[in-house]
Amino acid sequence: MLASPAPSGVPVLADPLNVTGALTAFNYSYSTADIYTYNTTGFVATPSLGTSHPGTQLTWFSTINNTKDGSKIPGTAFNFTASSPTSPNRQEVNWTLTIPQSNCASCSLIVRFNLFGNLTRGTSENFTLTPSTNNTSALPPGITGIFLGNQTTPVYVCGVTRSTLSACAQPEVTIPVSKWVGVSLRLSFRFGWNASTEPMLGSVGEVVVASIDNTPKSSLSNFMTQGPDPTKIMHAAKFFPIGYNTTVPSHVWSNEVINFYYPSGYNLSQIALNTTTYPIFPFGNRVPFEKIACNDEPLCTQSLIALNMSEVIPSSFVRNSTIFMTAISQNSVVRLNPVASGVATTFFVPGDTLGVNVTNRPSVPNIATSLKTGRLNITFVDRQGPETPTGRVFSTTTVTGGLFNFTLPSDCGSSNLRCGQWTMTATFIGGIDPVIGGIDLGIMSDSFSVDLIQVNSFTAGGSNTGVTASGTLTNSTGSPSASTSGVIFAIDSETPINSPVTNTTTSPSSIGIYVSNVTLVNGVFSQGRQLIMTFTLINPTNSIFNATVTIEHEWPGSQTHGVNTTIHLGTGILGELPFTSGPRAYQAAITLTPSGMRLVFTSLGNGNFESVPVTLGTDPVVSTRQHAGLFKITVATLTGNSVISTNSLESPPYAYVFGLPSASNKYLAYSSPFSTLNDGKFSLTLKSDSILAAKKLVIFALARDSRGIVLTSNPQDTGVSDSTILQSTLDSIGPVAEGSSATATLHLKSNATKFTEIITVDLYIQGTGKVAEQTGISIVPGASQDVTMSFKAPSTPGQYALSISSPQYNGGPLATQTLQVTILQSNLQILIPAAIGIVAAIIILGLYLVKRQPETEVIEEKTKPAGSKPKTPPSGKPPSKSLT
Question: pTM higher than 0.85, yes or no?
Answer without folding.
Answer: no
